[in-house]
């Protein structure tokens, strides 16, 4: 595992963008696994800047997003489709056909959609670099703590803490969707390389639980300790409860 503790969110965003850019330089056809949430926003802004300065080319890049809420159409300002367009896709030369985001409206056959998503990842040759944020409860994507974790893409009922944490993006807590589709931990763990980012004091307990040496389904991110090529990139607030940093 490569482990970086940086001083600020700005530094975290710069370093994350450099890691993604390096992957893209080495492989013009890279398959990127993309994350949403507030943490990667700064990184996306830097990638857009690099593109505008002609330092990056997205023409042959393929992307797979981790997750999407159920019940929000792609045009909904709180959907992850909208987030990705606003933060990245609208500003770079990515081919729309290479963008993949799980999508499931009420009434659709979610099982078939999930299986198709996994097939697409396999047909693309797997994910070269998977970006991850971290939930306050240790979730990755929307793989929530529980007795079991699911390997494949699946429909999930969101945990109470996730609904609470994500209610800051909605006008009222009632508007926060209760379900989502998420890539499973298997698809995440099969990625050739993983970059996990976390920023802020509120992530410190989840970082401590995830990298304590124990692996538990109660902290989904703890599974990442088993990955061969993990980059852990966090700021000093998120690192503040780790024994090796204190
Ligand atoms: C959501 C997303 C996760 C993300 C998490 C943390 O629950 N499904 O992929 O990592 O939020 O978000 P933030 O970066 O806003 O703390």
Give the SSE order as H and E letters.
EHEHEEHEHEEHEHEHE
How are the strands of the biggest sheet laid out side by side? Answer: 1-10-9-6-2-3-5
Sheet with most strands: 7 strands, parallel
Question: What ligands does this structure carry?
Answer: 2-amino-2-deoxy-6-O-phosphono-alpha-D-glucopyranose
Number of helices: 7
Named CATH topology? Rossmann fold
Question: Roughly how many Å is the radius of gyration?
Answer: 17 Å
CATH architecture descriptor: 3-Layer(aba) Sandwich
Structural class: alpha/beta
Integer tally of domains: 1
CATH C-level class is Alpha Beta
Describe this structure as you would to a colleague:
- The chain has one domain (2-245): Rossmann fold, CATH 3.40.50.1360.
- By secondary structure, it is α/β, with parallel strands linked by helices.
- It contains seven helices and ten strands.
- Helix 1 (9-26) crosses helix 2 (41-52).
- 42% of the residues are buried.
- The protein has helices spanning 9-26, 41-52, 80-87, 110-123, 160-166, 185-189, 204-210; strands at 2-6, 31-34, 62-65, 67-69, 99-100, 129-132, 154-157, 179-182, 193-198, 230-235.
- The protein is globular and about 45 Å long.
- The strands form two sheets. Strands 1-10-9-6-2-3-5 form a seven-stranded parallel sheet, with helices on one face. Strands 4-8-7 form a three-stranded antiparallel sheet, with helices on one face.
- Helix 2 links the parallel strand 2 (31-34) and strand 3.
- The structure holds 2-amino-2-deoxy-6-O-phosphono-alpha-D-glucopyranose (GLP).
């Amino acid at each position: 595992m490569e482990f970086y503790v940086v001083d600020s969110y700005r530094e975290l965003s710069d370093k994350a963008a450099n890691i993604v850019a390096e992957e893209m330089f080495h492989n013009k056809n890279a398959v990127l696994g993309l994350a949403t949430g507030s943490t990667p926003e700064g990184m996306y802004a830097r990638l857009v800047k690099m593109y505008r300065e002609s330092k990056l080319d997205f023409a042959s890049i393929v992307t797979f997003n981790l997750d999407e809420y159920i019940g929000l159409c792609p045009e909904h300002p709180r959907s992850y489709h909208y987030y990705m367009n606003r933060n990245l896709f609208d500003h770079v030369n990515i081919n729309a056909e290479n963008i993949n985001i799980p999508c499931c409206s009420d009434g659709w056959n979610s099982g078939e959609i999930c299986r198709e998503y996994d097939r697409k990842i396999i047909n693309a040759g797997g994910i070269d670099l998977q970006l991850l944020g971290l939930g306050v409860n240790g979730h990755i994507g929307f793989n929530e703590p529980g007795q079991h974790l699911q390997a494949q893409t699946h429909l999930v009922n969101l945990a109470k803490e996730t609904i609470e944490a994500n209610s800051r993006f909605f006008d009222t807590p009632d508007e926060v969707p209760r379900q989502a589709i998420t890539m499973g931990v298997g698809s995440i763990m099969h990625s050739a390389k993983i970059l996990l980012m976390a920023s802020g004091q509120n992530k410190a307990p989840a970082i401590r639980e995830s990298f304590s040496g124990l692996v538990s389904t109660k902290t989904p991110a703890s599974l990442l300790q088993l990955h061969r090529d993990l980059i852990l990139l966090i700021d000093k607030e998120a690192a503040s409860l780790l024994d090796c940093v204190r």
